[in-house]
Specification:
By secondary structure, the protein is mostly helical. It is 61% helix and 0% strand.
């Protein structure tokens, strides 16, 4: 696997400098993912915008955001994002029961959250072509068209981060290392 360079204020392209500053202000540090993405100001800015929109402007509550993010992260086996979003879930007050179920791919504590995970997974696996039955089950669980579109936004955001981390082999940030994760059934390296 090819690793990608990491950047900071001294090495990043000029267009990434205000974006790095924004990351430092938001997180109190420069997350490893952002230091890699800084190699492309457009990618880092796009990721920051999509993250902000998904986190602040969707119809999902904290538990539902976590379900969407982690369903995608786990499906993509993202060694960086699963621990990062475990820590983010803790900061958002999401129960460990939900985080553990998502990480371990075991049933969630509510049928509605399970329906959200099932639909998100169907969207990712089918590349945006869920069956009529999958879509109807999502609606039957109490979700609507807005949430369908919000799931698409979450997928777009997570594809950017998951794919970057796969290629870069981004090391998990120190504060998130305690949430290290390996996909169930994955072979040890």
């Amino acid at each position: 696997m090819t690793k990608l360079d990491r950047y900071d204020e001294a090495t990043a392209p000029e267009g990434s400098l205000p974006l790095i500053e924004r990351s430092r202000k938001a997180f109190g540090r420069l997350p490893g993912l952002h230091s890699v993405m800084a190699g492309s100001p457009a990618l880092l800015e796009g990721y920051q915008v999509l993250h902000r929109l998904f986190a602040e402007a969707t119809a999902f509550d904290a538990e539902e955001k976590t379900v969407v993010w982690q369903t995608i992260n786990v499906y993509h086996s993202c060694h960086y994002c699963v621990p990062a979003h475990t820590g983010i879930a803790k900061m958002m007050g999401v129960s460990d029961e939900i985080s553990t179920a998502l990480r371990d791919e075991t049933p969630l504590p509510s049928e509605k959250l399970e329906a959200l995970r099932t639909f998100t997974l169907a969207m990712v696996e089918s590349r945006g072509n869920p069956t009529d039955e999958e879509l109807q089950a999502f609606y039957d669980a109490g979700y609507g068209q807005r949430q369908v579109l919000d799931v698409i936004l979450g997928i777009a955001q997570k594809v950017m981060s998951n794919y970057t981390n796969h290629i870069a082999e981004t090391p998990v940030d120190a504060p998130m290392q305690k949430f290290a994760w390996t996909k169930a059934g994955a072979k040890a390296a």
